[in-house]
Amino acid sequence: MPDPLDLSLLRSFVAVIECGSVLNAAARVGRSQSAVSMQIQRLEQEIGRPLFRRDGRTLRPNPAGEELLLHARRLLRLSEEAMASLRSPEDAGLVRLGVPEDYAAYLLLPALSRFAQDHPRAEIELTCEPSAALVEKLQAGRLDLAMITRYPHQPFAVLRREQFVWAATPEHQAWLRDPLPVALFEAGDIARRYAVEALQRADRPYRVVCSSRSLHGLIAVAQAGLAVVGLTESSVPPGLLTLGNIEGLPALPMFDLSLVAGLGEPQRMTAALHDFLQRELGRM
User: Fold this and answer.
1) Which of 5, 117, 149, 191 has a Cα at 20 to 30 A from 101?
2) Rounded to an integer, what distance in angstroms lies between the CA atom of residue 63 and that of residue 90?
3) Into how many domains does the chain fold?
4) TM spans, by residue (predicted)?
5) Contact in structure between 149 and 100 (CB atoms under 8 Å)
6) Is 248 left (phi over 0), alpha (psi -120 to 50) or beta?
7) Last residue of some domain: 87, 102, 136?
């Protein structure tokens, strides 16, 4: 039976590929350049074939190296998950987390991916609903944590601020129509309220051509050229143009985002996720 692959060799091997050179890889893994070179030579001896080709000054994996890279990354990830689990056996638990749909994809999910790397035994149960519904679920004890858009009267601390904007396809120029066709979230949503209030203050005639609780539904209507839509600026997808005074549309306010904990003393994993999101999202 062949000897098992040495994880320290695989770690240096992956670093060389990702950094493009032995010198840069040495800085990442905390070894000397000569030590990393020796590790690569040893790995190639154990595999029984070369793993790299030179492209100028850059080292790139050959077909054998590409194949090994897939296994190496998986083995290293499993090793890290095992160590994290053994070092913190109590680091497990379920967190029921709520978030509006327009914050989930671009803001929350990347952060949750990073949290999962540090807490592989954590279970996140995600609920995507409007902010008002999430607050009700928190108060009813059906959520442990929620990221919401804060209404002015609510006492929650502000985590971050997001700009609310108009968006539409440049090809159809829906903003030139009168009355203005708009796609809005359903009644009761703060985004709908702010959009309608801005249009009324500007005395801009409008008609609601789509009312939906789905972010993707509203974006699809705007992409089809049927309406102008109000979105947080960070969630405007490619292909939609952000609009403003130049296009004759009234300015929209900033949204205050809050991270709100449920009732009672939070469980250990809930507290860990709360603190992580405070750090990660608050500094972005």
Assistant:
1) 117
2) 42
3) 2
4) none
5) yes
6) left
7) 87
